[in-house]
Design brief:
Elements (H helix, E strand, L loop, with lengths): L3 E10 L4 H8 L5 H4 L4 E8 L8 E8 L2 E13 L4 E9 L1 H4 E12 L4 E11 L8 H20 L3
Antiparallel strand pairs: 1-7, 2-3, 3-4, 4-5, 5-6, 6-7
Length: 153
């Protein structure tokens, strides 16, 4: 059994995705006000919000348990509206040797979707795939999309 893997999930959105991209790239700390049941805190540790190399700490809830993550923004593509995050410390690295998550807004011509991809390396063959983390990202996306739909243009 391979220890490396990748999971993808697509979520349809009703907007063009600009506000979602802005939130996930530049206004991560706003998530604590929008979804406090999922994200309790996000604090900038190094760099500047929305810049490659930016490092932030987050406290969040996953499966009813409080978790911590220190995360680095590894890549941002404004044109493709994608962001890649890499876990550098925290709860997720107790289970996985490495984990990267990529947020991207895609279009099939008529509809927009948010695609989350998680690339990971398990610590052992018994380690489950990070489906719960992917579900958390999807829930967060849906809550933020709902909030964005309520914001007047």
């Amino acid at each position: 059994m391979a220890l490396n893997g990748k999971l993808d999930c697509r979520t349809s959105i009703n907007s063009d995705g600009d506000l979602l991209f802005e939130l996930f790239a530049y206004k991560l700390s706003d998530m604590t006000n929008i979804c406090p049941q999922i994200v309790q805190s996000i604090d900038l540790v190094a760099g500047q919000w929305g810049a490659v190399g930016c490092v932030f700490n987050s406290n969040y809830t996953l499966g009813g348990e409080k978790r911590f993550s220190k995360t680095k923004i590894e890549a941002i593509d404004e044109k493709k509206r994608s962001i890649t995050y890499k876990a550098v410390e925290g709860s997720v690295l107790e289970t996985y040797s490495s984990l990267k998550a990529t947020f991207a807004i895609e279009s099939d011509g008529q509809h927009k979707v948010v695609k989350w991809s998680i690339e990971y390396e398990k610590r052992s063959a018994c380690t489950p795939q990070p489906h719960a983390l992917l579900a958390l990202f999807t829930s967060l996306t849906k809550l933020l999309e709902l909030r964005c739909s309520l914001v007047p243009n």
